[in-house]
């Protein structure tokens, strides 16, 4: 079985389809992405969860354990990226970028609110407040997740906050956040979780909310792809992005591994194999790097 890390090391060209078409993609700019945000706005508190509550009580214990691991990573992850985003807002380079970046921080807070509501109303986590609920949810995440979200992301955010004019720090943060966390891990998790919930058919509230979240994340990743494409013409900034990928991809590979398993071992998640998850994640990353104009890092 090839892991995300091994696929990245191999740089398998077979995972990139229609490269000529990728070269011709026109990326949306921050002003266009801001206007798209206005058209795609939604309310986390307005989604009907009644049928989801009944369906949660009917699924078996194994499926519950898998879902609580996978969705807890999203819940805690949304809280982490919300709190660590301010440095990027401070680092805006023009008013259009400023407008879009503020919408992304609002999006991340809304995603956290949706998951908090879902854990409270569907999963019956009846803790006194969101802080206590998050502490309880953290029992379901892995040490590798903690390394990426509580250490690597926080270090990148603090570096940018200390000097918002540092373009190298901004490139490193966008690479960490938009390419690794959102563009590789989040979009992979969204696809496989939505596949299970849509096939099950008993969770219309989750499908509606998580589909909205996935749409938001695609808009965020579009910004990150655009930004890095602008900066990748500078060899030093391109190297900063590649160095960040080389450092964080081994960690990201471990985030995909469920509790009780080690990187490289066989496992399944919601009926999908580790091979399927890793291949999807690698393809998502390699396509965006192709659009940006970056090669895969030479990883040891």
Layout of SSEs?
Elements (H helix, E strand, L loop, with lengths): L3 H7 L8 H5 L6 H10 L10 H7 L4 H23 L2 H5 L4 H27 L8 H8 L5 H20 L4 H34 L3 H28 L3 H21 L12 E2 L2 E2 H19 L8
Antiparallel strand pairs: 1-2
Give the tags.
300 residues; mainly alpha; 13 helices; 2 strands; 71% helix; globular; disordered N terminus
Describe the structure.
With 300 residues, this protein is mainly α. The chain contains 13 helices and two strands. It has helices at residues 4-10, 19-23, 30-39, 50-56, 61-83, 86-90, 95-121, 130-137, 143-162, 167-200, 204-231, 235-255, 274-292; strands at residues 268-269, 272-273. It has a two-stranded antiparallel sheet. Helix 7 runs antiparallel to helix 11 and helix 9 packs antiparallel against helix 10 (167-200). The protein is globular. It starts with a helix and ends in an 8-residue tail after the last helix.
Estimate the helix proportion, in percent. Answer: over 70%
Largest sheet: 2 strands, antiparallel
Give the total of beta strands.
Answer: 2
What's the order of the H and E elements? HHHHHHHHHHHHEEH
Q: Could you provide a short overview of the structure?
A:
With 300 residues, the chain is mostly helical. The protein is built from 13 helices and two strands, in the order ααααααααααααββα.
